[in-house]
Amino acid sequence: MKGYLWAPSAATSVKTAQSNWESMAIDAVGNVIEFWGFKRNQGRVWALLYLRDASLTAAEIEKELELSKGGVSMLIRDLERWGVVLRVRVPGDGSWRYRAETDLLQMARRVIEEREFSFIARIRADLAEARKLAEADARVLPEQVERLRKMEAVAEATEKALGVFLKTSRLDVGGMFERFRA
Known about the structure:
This protein is mostly helical and 182 residues long. It has two domains: 4-101, Arc Repressor Mutant, subunit A; 105-174. 60% of the residues lie in helices and 7% in strands. The chain has helices spanning 20-35, 40-52, 58-65, 69-81, 104-136, 142-168, and strands spanning 4-6, 85-89, 96-100. It has a three-stranded mixed beta sheet. A hairpin with a 6-residue loop joins strand 2 (85-89) and strand 3. Helix 3 packs across helix 4 (69-81). The chain is elongated. The chain starts with a strand and ends in a 14-residue tail after the last helix. Mean pLDDT is 84; it is low at 1-16.
């Protein structure tokens, strides 16, 4: 099946209690993810899987992070959709297990493409429509239309910078803010 992996060996043993450093790191990632507008527990699930470098069942994730079964199910569904968590089958084990994507640049690329890139495209389209409406309205000053053009140009530059990042894993925003000057 596309998107699924087979683990080469039997189920990896799971640590039953998080150590202080692990809890602190998991919570730190959760806080960053929440700051970026995602669900805090999405970051916590990914961080647990990433730090353990093991495939865990949903029940093990529930227990380790003290989350509900339904909550873990929804979190994993989102994380799989973004490609940051992979579903794994271990031979001889009937349960699905989950493993973190470990290529951080690839992971960032997927999330940016899925979320930020489409968001910027919508913003750019809204600004273009606002500019057209402003140009058609005799009450709007030419300076206001010009400011809309500048905002539209920044959105376009942002979209291009994200496109370059998605293709090259390099993000250059150096000239982006030049459009606000003048």
